[in-house]
Write a structure and sequence with these properties.
Blueprint (H helix, E strand, L loop, with lengths): L5 E5 L6 H14 L7 E5 L2 H10 L6 E4 L16 H6 L2 E6 L2 H6 L4 H14 L2 E6 L3 H5 L3 H16 L8 E4 L13 H16 L3 H6 L1 E5 L7 H5 L6 E4 L6 H17 L1
Parallel strand pairs: 1-2, 1-8, 2-3, 3-4, 4-5, 5-6, 6-7, 7-8
Helix pairs in contact: 1-2, 1-11, 5-7, 7-8
The chain binds 2-phosphoglycolic acid.
Length: 257
């Protein structure tokens, strides 16, 4: 089955109005050549409206790095799915490992956020992945199965048809260590097979991105793997030239597929 590649930039807690403006301009100026893939940018909440405005008239869309699972109410400091849609978002990152670890987001909260994103009309980009210790103890598949199962129990298998998954081994995020293409492919195939047990057709169509120190010099090998459908890019997405080079690598794989 043909799956359209996605390259997503997770800007994390970076940027000012000025650097954001220059970064978006740099990306939009060079992105036209990567027209066979979807490109998504995830700025901070405070830069969303600015980024959305700068992306008008381009094929690039934006998403939020988080949301609160409610529509409105007394939740000081939180932002809801409908607010993000109103601000121009199409996607929401759900369950990024930094939020699971630093903000103590558990499986239940992550599943509730996934559901809230879909209810608001956002496409959840669900992040899953294991720690170094879990990999060493051969628990990678078990950990990822649990992360997928908690979402599936909440929303049902059909919900995967409107979602994207990112496999991000925690030991590879921001460390410069990348999973080898074979290591990543193994886990991507596991994720697809896991979803196929519930729904074969949806498993064939769902986009599974790899994240964790993707750079211009390793992107092409990762994107050549049969079950890798693009990338979730952190550090390298803050530099227009690097991000565009990764987009170009994905576009090349998309055209050859
Ligand atoms: P990295 O981050 O590319 O800087 O490793 C990836 C991510 O956390 O999504």
């Amino acid at each position: 089955m043909h799956r359209r590649f996605i390259v997503a930039g997770n800007w994390k807690m970076h940027g000012s109005r000025d650097t954001v403006m220059r970064l978006v301009k740099g990306i939009t100026d060079g992105a036209a050549v990567s027209s066979d893939i979807d490109i998504v940018l995830f700025p901070t909440y405070v830069h969303l409206a600015q980024v959305h405005a700068l992306l008008q008239g381009t094929a690039i869309v934006c998403g939020a790095q988080n949301l609160y699972p409610g529509t409105q109410g007394a939740f000081t400091g939180e932002v809801s799915g409908p607010m993000l849609v109103d601000a121009g978002c199409c996607y929401a990152l759900i369950g990024h490992s930094e939020r699971r670890a630093i903000l103590h987001e558990g499986l239940e909260l992550v599943a509730a956020k996934f559901q809230a994103a879909q209810q608001a009309g956002l496409i959840p980009l669900l992040c899953v992945g294991e720690t170094q210790a879990e990999r060493e103890h051969k628990q990678t598949e078990q950990v990822i199965a649990q992360q997928l199962a908690s979402v599936m129990e909440k929303v049902g298998a059909e919900a995967w048809s409107q979602a994207v998954i990112a496999y991000e081994p925690i030991w590879a995020i921001g460390t410069g260590l990348t999973a080898t293409p074979e290591q990543a492919q193994h886990v991507h195939a596991f994720i697809r097979a896991y979803i196929a047990k519930q729904h074969v057709a949806i498993a064939g169509g769902i986009r599974i991105l790899y994240g964790g120190s993707v750079k211009p010099d390793n992107a092409a090998q990762l994107f050549a793997m049969p079950d890798i459908d693009g990338g979730l890019i952190g550090g390298a997405s803050l530099d227009a030239k690097s991000f565009l080079a990764i987009c170009a690598a994905a576009n090349k794989s998309a055209v050859m597929a």
